[in-house]
Amino acid sequence: MSVILECKNLTKVFGPKTALYGLNLSLESGRIIGLLGPNGSGKTTLIKMINGLISPTEGEVLIDGIKPGVDTKKIVSYLPERSYLNRHIRVAQAVELFSDFYEDFDRGRAYDMLARLHIERNEKLSTMSKGTREKVHLVLVMSRRARLYCLDEPIAGVDPAARDFILSTIINNYDENATILISTHLISDIENILDEVIFLEYGQLRMFSSVDDIRFNQGKSVDTLFREVFKC
Ligand SMILES: Nc1ncnc2c1ncn2[C@@H]1O[C@H](COP(=O)(O)OP(=O)(O)OP(=O)(O)O)[C@@H](O)[C@H]1O
């Protein structure tokens, strides 16, 4: 398996706050990885640096061996914490936008997922509920044939019944050689699809483990372990 993401001494300082301290991490292709940690532990900061939205203060992040930039945007599909889609457009226009923007976008895949979620092509984003708008953005992001997907809280606003559907859509639609990095607080909803988990604490790597190791060697669910490790 090849390494798709590498963080070397990755550090981000915002004024008096250090959001990430010398993070060293190496993620292999073909895995679904949960990026977990309490509020303020650095998850979004890491995802933003992978996507080149903010630059490291020290150290570096490499995607398939290269620094974030135009070339990495071709292989990384990113779902931000808050949707940037223009609310005045319709679903079909959002699909066209992604299709024009990304060579790896699969329109058929997007329309298939939208139909299964009962989302009409003609509907305006402004008239949708927040959760439905989030589903549209996730569908667009997952309809790319990317090498690395970075999903920042993908199911936070989605009802529990739709969560299962969305998670199965995620696993059924991604190429087996791709990697998915998912930041979430909804651990019990998501842990069944994860291969590995990263626990961040105060901007540092507290643990990086396979889910099988947590289940079989420690005899716990990831959710239970998280609650024990980060007990307030
Ligand atoms: N633009 C910024 N300016 C100043 N401080 C920031 C900025 N962005 C993040 N931080 C700080 O960096 C730390 C990490 O924030 P980050 O958003 O990465 O955490 P998180 O793990 O994603 O949290 P949550 O689970 O609440 O979304 C926090 O202390 C936060 O206040």
From TrEMBL:
SUPFAM superfamilies named in the record: P-loop containing nucleoside triphosphate hydrolases
What GO MF annotations does this protein's record show? ATP binding; ATP hydrolysis activity
Q: Specify whether Aminoacyl-tRNA synthetase is a keyword of the entry.
A: no
The answer to keyword Nucleotide-binding applying to this record is yes
Give the matching Gene3D superfamilies: P-loop containing nucleotide triphosphate hydrolases
What name appears for this protein in its UniProt entry?
A: ABC-2 type transport system ATP-binding protein
Keyword annotations for this protein, in alphabetical order, are: ATP-binding, Nucleotide-binding, Transport
One short Pfam name that applies is: ABC_tran
Tell me which residues make up the ABC transporter domain. 5-227
